[in-house]
Amino acid sequence: LREKRFRDGAVGFERPEMKVIVDENGKPVDVHQKITKEANWLIEEFMLLANRKVAEFIATEGKMDGKTRKNAKTFIYRIHDEPNSQKLFSLGHFAGNFGYKTNFGEPGQVSKALNELFAQAKDKPEFMALEMLALRSMAKAKYKSENDGHYGLGLDDYCHFTSPIRRYPDLVCH
Q1: Three-class HEC string of the chain
Q2: Per-residue pLDDT tens for 122-149?
Q3: What is the tens place of the pLDDT at every residue in 90-110?
C-alpha cells in the first residue's frame, strides 16, 4: 500500500499491481501498472457482505439468527474446505528453513498459525514466498448445495451471486 495525498488535503491509499499484456500466442508484449484504490476495496467489501447476507437469509429461512435450518430451500453455496494437510506440512518445512516454527497440526488452529507466521515474516524478504506457498496450500473453493461454510473467508454462510461473470449459481440466486 502506498499513501496518496489529494489536492484538498485528504489522504487515501493505493495498492499498485502489475498487469501483463499478452499477444494471441500468450507471449508477453507489455506491462502496465494498475492501481487499485479505496473505492475498489469498498465495492468489494459490499459485494462480500451481500453474498454473505443472501446466503444467511436462505440458510436460516429468513430468520437471520445465524442458525442454519435443516429444511432450508435448496441453494448453491460457495464453499471452501480447510487447507490440505500435506501442503501445510510442506509450508511448515519451508518456513523452518528460515527459522520459523509453525504448528499447523492443531485442529482448528490453522488460521491462527498462518497469522502468526505472517506476523513474524512481515517486512522480511521471504514474506512473499511464504504467502504464495500458503495460498497454494489452500483448498480450492467450489459450489455445493450443502452449506459447509467458507474457510478462506472465515464465514459460515456464503454464496457467489455478485460475480461479474454470470454463472449458473448466480442465476439461481437471482
Answers
A1: CEEEECCCCCEEEEEEEEEEEECCCCCEEEEEEEEEEHHHHHHHHHHHHHHHHHHHHHHCCCCCCCCCCCCCCCCCEEEECCCCHHHHHHHHHHHHCCCCCCCCCCCCCHHHHHHHHHHHHCCCCCHHHHHHHHHHHCCCCEEECCCCCECCCCECCCCCCCCCCCCHHHHHHC
A2: 889 898 899 889 988 888 889 999 989 8
A3: 999 999 999 999 988 776 788
